[in-house]
Amino acid sequence: MRSTPFAVALLAGCFASSANAALSFSDDFSGPAINSFWWAPSTIGANTVTLENGRIVMTQSNYYDSGGLVLNFNVSGDFVATVDYSLIDWPAGNYERIGISTGFGAVERSQNPGWFDEAYVSDFQHNITTVGTTDTTGTLKMERTGSTLTGSFWNGTGWTFIGSYTHGTLLADAPLGLVLWNGYSVASLPIKVSFDNFYLSAPDMAPIPEPAAYAMFLAGLGLMGFVARRRRAD
Q1: What range defines the domain where residue 59 resides?
Q2: What's the rounded Cα separation, in Å, for the pair 21 and 203?
């Protein structure tokens, strides 16, 4: 992790925002262990979250399990978050969802046979937009401006818009993390993916008050999957 003024301020116990410019944090996961000051691995069921060869590796062996690497700080106000991903074991018909997630939704690289198949997905408060793809590696971006969340992916020369959603509740402080989950009733397993080169630009962060927040964060992913199934059935 490269040291930033924001990191120094946090280590000093200062959580005040900057009125003049956003502060940034990046992590290339090159250290000997996951940086526990910034991150909390969290899993439900048999999922795993590990640091391997300078990247975060997540696995899933049961469709109802989930796993994530959750920031220890909620983001406030406008922010931009990006991360590189790679699909290592990604069998056909797996119904998997990976990406950047908040309490309001996610920007994903996902698979859902019979609906959007292989695609980039923005799912903000269950308003789902997809862009078909065959990419097995790439970069995802989630951005909040005011009360609007936007999802994009890097196409090799620039950012491609996936979708956005505007609602007043999106102004609230939000947990942020990297996740792997299913949320559907069928799957072809096992799944293995990796994340690298996380970057966040944000004006302010606040410590998440309780470890229980991590479990709530992951439990919300299952609800997203349930609502998506209902929307598809309708």
Answers
A1: 5-12+25-233
A2: 7
Total domains in the chain come to 1
Contacts of 224 (CB under 8 A, 6+ apart): 105, 106, 123, 126, 183
pLDDT tens digits, one per residue of 155-196: 999 999 999 999 988 888 888 999 999 867 666 678 999 999
DSSP output for 160-210: EEEEEEE-GGGGS-B-EEEEEE--SS-----EEEEEEEEEEEESEEEE-S-
Distance of CA 112 to the CA centre of its chain: 18
Residue 17 lies in a domain: no
The CA distance from 180 to 79, in Å, is: 22
CATH of the domain at 221: 2.60.120.200
Look up the pTM and report it.
0.83
